[in-house]
Amino acid sequence: AHAASAVLNFSENCTPDILTPYLDGIVSKLLVLLQNGKQMVQEGALTALASVADSSQGQFQKYYDAVMPYLKAILVNANDKSNRMLRAKSMECISLVGMAVGKDKFRDDAKQVMEVLMSLQGSQMEADDPTTSYMLQAWARLCKCLGQEFIPYMSVVMPPLLQSAQLKPDVIITSADSDVDIDDEDESIQTITLGDKRIGIKTSVLEEKATACNMLCCYADELKEGFFPWIDQVAPTLVPLLKFYFHEEVRKAAVSAMPELLRSAKLAVEKGQSQGRNESYVKQLTDYIIPALVEALHKEPEIDICASMLDALNESIQ
Predict the structure, then answer these.
(1) In whole angstroms, how large is the CA radius of gyration of the chain?
(2) Residues 5, 127 share a domain
(3) What percent of the chain is predicted at pLDDT more than 70?
(4) Which of 38, 109, 149, 239 has its CA 20 to 30 A from that of 198?
């Protein structure tokens, strides 16, 4: 397990040309761990393999046929509660390997993997199941890899993603000088002070919300006009989050998504893929997004997010 995590640390910042001479040895040893290791070791091997694939990119092609069957076997068979993290890591690894080798090599396996993910998504998962957030990220990587070929799966991916993006934060409010203590040591609760109030928020909810908002931005960016059918649901979800002061990542993702939504609408209208909508729809969307960005900019406490908002405004106006 330590060796696998050392490989992870080493490969994370490597370029393909540094890593390539060592790939034969690294990949074959990690495969041995995948086949014979204890669960913790297997999890470490999956994370290391994902990182190696991500860092070596196209150089990973030659190992694909040896590696992918093992990854798919774990995805399909690791379905006990005790194996949840193993299955989640296999999703991460498969999607990063797919991105590394490209859609022509990955296409057939991608279809099988997406069938498994769709059936998992339809099953009832427990609130603390790590699979959910790993799956959101795996879907987004699969979309990046497959591009427009991913569009048929959007009707499966989007409903739970919108649900996660719309999560209401789980909040405990006390007055700043109250004796009722929100435990500062408790890592599952984040505390912030607003005026004379202290607010404790469950971090897992915030993290899931932030991941979902990032994924929405990613889909809009990747699919361009193909994202058009979802704009009517996504814009009213993300625009209010420009002022979601409980979590910076949520605001950053919402900001980044604004020009992407406008670009998607504009391209769809230009290419005749806008389901009968015309330029007036783009104007309506612009009139909704730009004032919201300007208003959020006035109230934004973080300098770097102000800068992102100005960039987003600039892109949106263009």
Answers:
(1) 22
(2) yes
(3) 97
(4) 239
